[in-house]
Specification:
single chain, mainly beta, five-stranded mixed beta sheet, five-stranded antiparallel beta sheet, 21 strands, globular, binds the ligand Nc1nc2c(c(=O)[nH]1)N[C@H]1C(S)=C(S)[C@@H](COP(=O)(O)O)O[C@H]1N2, binds molybdenum atom
Length: 362
């Protein structure tokens, strides 16, 4: 793993350094990518508390969270919304991720639903849950993100363990929000406040100094070049693909688009195959897949393309900057994910192919 601190926009970034990470479905902590922008806060679990605000009211210590509510564990594949950004041509700004900003871990913690119910929230009523992180920028801006309350009541948790170990500091110690299946940015680390609101977070939403709406309303939204999306109070769906097709003018990165990566062969060495023997191709389509490849000698590009349970498949490539939604209207092989200025939510499969040379064993 190599750690880089992007000097232009200050992201701290760490990614799996090897394609082979994706040959297994569970990612060891040391190979799980890391992504955040502010300095990591130095927090201690026994001094820390979670504020419940907005339409709920209360304060919970770590001991309250662990003793007063059930404990659950979920396997969550987290993908940075900027994964695949490096495949945009021309290049967009920020971290040029290829396929490595994705990982699967077991997260253990308290169901958000249990806390909300205990504080009188049983129905979503089209409201939002805003999680605020304990990291501050130099200008006192906080990291705040809103998700539909409906999602929070369904399967989200406040996690304090990762793969059975105490949550590492870089992954949000002592507590982080886990939003299963949704892009990394929704999974707020170092959570210190949960706020039940009628709308998504914006500039004036919190009783705090600094900017509040940046992460929700400005960064992490899909739009063509030269556009500054206006803030929305609400959107009709958390389905990123539905938003992209026509649901929302400039979509938010909520649930993750269907995606896959090959782990082996990893392209680093030529393969020698015995006659009549297959080559194992293994990877993750945010679940482990495996394919016995009847390989023939020669040069190949091995591609993986996933289809989700709603029949939506990965587009082949990323469009030209001007195409925006038109690219999505192409049929199958010609369908192109819209080039967008932030380089978000890209799930094209062609750029992630593995070049493999196969020789016949004699
Ligand atoms: N408080 C806080 N939470 C955050 C971030 C951040 O900068 N601050 N970065 C988000 C982004 S963009 C991603 S992709 C995930 C990455 O989580 P990880 O570092 O545990 O992999 O955390 C999210 N949660
Ligand atoms: Mo991210």
């Amino acid at each position: 793993m190599t750690e880089t601190r992007d000097t232009a926009d200050r992201y701290t970034v760490l990614g799996a350094s090897e394609r082979r990470t994706f040959a297994n479905w569970l990612t060891p902590i040391g190979e799980h990518f890391v992504c955040h922008r502010n300095d990591m806060p130095v927090l201690e679990a026994d001094e820390w508390s979670l504020s419940l605000t907005g339409e709920i009211d209360g304060t919970l210590s770590m001991a309250d969270l662990k003793s007063a509510y059930p404990t659950v564990a979920v396997a969550h594949t987290m993908e940075c919304a900027g994964n695949g950004r490096g495949h945009h041509q021309p290049e967009t700004g920020s971290v040029q991720w290829g396929f490595e900003a994705a990982a699967t871990a077991f997260w253990t913690g308290t169901p958000v639903r249990s806390i909300l119910r205990d504080h009188g929230v049983t129905d979503a009523d089209e409201r939002w849950l805003t999680a605020v992180g304990g990291d501050r920028s130099a200008d006192d801006d906080v990291f705040a993100r809103s998700i539909p309350l409906e999602k929070a009541l369904t399967d989200c948790l406040l996690a304090y363990e990762m793969n059975g170990h105490p949550l590492p500091r870089e992954h949000g110690y002592p507590l982080r929000l886990i939003v299963p299946g949704w892009y990394g940015v929704n999974n707020v680390k170092w959570v210190e406040e949960l706020r039940v609101m009628d709308s998504m977070v914006d500039a004036e939403s919190l009783e705090r100094p600094g900017e509040h709406g940046v992460w929700q309303q400005e960064a992490y939204r899909l739009h063509p070049p030269g556009v500054s999306p206006e803030a929305n109070e609400t959107v009709p769906t958390g389905d990123t693909r539905d938003q992209l097709e026509d649901g929302v003018t400039y979509p938010y990165t909520f649930d993750a688009n269907v995606m896959s990566v090959i782990g082996i062969p990893d392209g680093t060495a030529e393969l020698t195959v015995e006659l009549e023997k297959t080559v194992e191709v293994r990877g993750v389509a945010w679940r482990l897949f495996r394919y016995e490849w009847d390989a023939t000698p020669g040069r190949h590009t091995v591609l993986s393309r996933a289809t989700d349970d709603r029949g939506r498949t990965q587009p082949a490539r990323i469009s030209e900057p001007g195409a925006w939604r038109e690219g999505l209207e192409g049929e199958d092989e010609t369908e192109a994910f819209p080039w967008n200025e932030g380089g978000y939510a890209a799930n094209a499969y062609e750029p992630n192919g593995v070049a493999v040379v196969v020789e016949q064993e004699t």
